[in-house]
Automatic annotation (TrEMBL), chain A:
GO terms for molecular function: structural constituent of ribosome. This is Large ribosomal subunit protein uL14m. SUPFAM superfamilies: Ribosomal protein L14. One of its GO terms (cellular component) is mitochondrial inner membrane. The keyword Ribonucleoprotein applies.
TrEMBL record, chain B:
Pfam families: RsfS. Keywords: Mitochondrion. This is Mitochondrial assembly of ribosomal large subunit protein 1. It is found in: Mitochondrion. PANTHER family: IOJAP SUPERFAMILY ORTHOLOG, MITOCHONDRIAL ASSEMBLY OF RIBOSOMAL LARGE SUBUNIT PROTEIN 1. The keyword Mitochondrion applies. NCBIfam families: rsfS_iojap_ybeB (TIGR00090). One of its GO terms (molecular function) is mitochondrial large ribosomal subunit binding. Signal peptide: none annotated. GO terms for biological process: negative regulation of mitochondrial translation; negative regulation of ribosome biogenesis; ribosomal large subunit biogenesis.
Length: 147, 151
């Protein structure tokens, strides 16, 4: 499905070679789902999520009893030097049986009142969000591709 | 369990929304391949209170008509003032203010799907030039070091 690469410290020079794209190369294998300090990929078309910055967006808090966020959990992101709430729509960790596993930790930016910041989402969004308790119909409404 | 859902049909819902003075009622029938719902409704309201009243009245009607074994339905976006939605399973209703409707253009997305113009305007994500799929960690780090020596 999706892909994302994180730049480690030794490969920082490659970013200038490839240009403005946030090319982060992820060297580690599939780890846990999203927790504090995980770098995430913003998949909607909001300006905050798509303007390049020298640091990738990082999770700084998970609104959950355990600190680990799965699909459908709200998290707090540090993005472009500001704090923004976001909703997890896919992670690299395998989830329950017959649910999609993504190649990148995908996240959709939302406001404090729950409205999505962007207006369209191109990456696939899992349909299990519908079964979850919470306000996901808005994110499903702006998604192009439902999985 | 089918009785309530057959009574709470699309015609009933549209009649209800017309009775509530909802403006610009847009009902889109979705194909079953989407596996989302059967009908997707978008309505506009004149103010935040209007949206709130419409959403709560629709929910009240549903609760009156549903049987014991129908699932409960919640209103999403209660603390927003411009966008509320209710998911009834086979029908999804979005109550928005006209300005919010202009920003998101849900009708365009759900009728045009991939041909939507906002989607076309989005810059596609691209792979970096030196991406090679399937490299193991060792091979990857070796190739990066090689590149650094070249430069």
């Amino acid at each position: 499905f999706s892909f994302k690469f994180h730049l480690s410290g030794t490969c920082a020079h490659l970013q200038t070679a490839v240009g403005l794209h946030r090319c982060h190369l992820n060297i580690t294998g599939a780890c846990s789902a999203i927790q504090k300090m995980t770098r995430v990929r913003v998949v909607d078309n909001s300006t905050l999520g798509n303007t390049p910055y020298h640091r990738p967006p990082k999770c700084i808090h998970v609104y959950n009893k355990s600190g680990v966020g799965k699909v459908g959990d709200k998290i707090l992101l540090a993005i472009k030097g500001e704090k923004k709430k976001a909703l997890i729509v896919g992670h690299r960790r395998p989830g329950p049986c017959m649910t999609p596993r993504f190649d990148s930790n995908n996240v959709v930016l939302i406001e404090d009142n729950g409205n999505p910041t962007g207006t369209r989402i191109k990456t696939p969004i899992p349909l299990i969000l519908r079964k979850h308790e919470g306000e996901f119909s808005k994110v499903l409404a702006i998604a192009q591709n439902l999985v | 369990s089918d009785h309530a859902l057959s009574k709470f049909s699309i015609d009933f819902v549209t009649a209800l929304l017309r009775q509530e003075n909802a403006s610009n009622i847009c009902v889109i029938q979705l194909p079953p391949e989407m596996r989302y719902s059967d009908y997707f409704i978008i309505v506009s309201g004149s103010s935040a209170r209007h949206l709130h009243a419409m959403a709560h009245y629709t929910l009240k009607m549903y609760k009156q008509m549903k049987q014991e074994n129908n699932p409960h339905v919640l209103i999403e976006g209660k603390d927003t003032d411009d966008w509320m939605c209710i998911d009834f399973g086979s029908i999804v209703i979005h109550f928005m203010l006209p300005e919010t409707r202009e920003i998101y253009e849900l009708e365009k997305l759900w009728t045009l799907r991939s041909y939507d113009d906002q989607l076309a305007q989005m810059v596609p994500a691209s792979l970096p030039d030196d991406f090679i799929f399937g490299l193991t960690n060792k091979q990857q780090s070796k190739s990066f070091l090689h590149k650094r020596d070249l430069q």
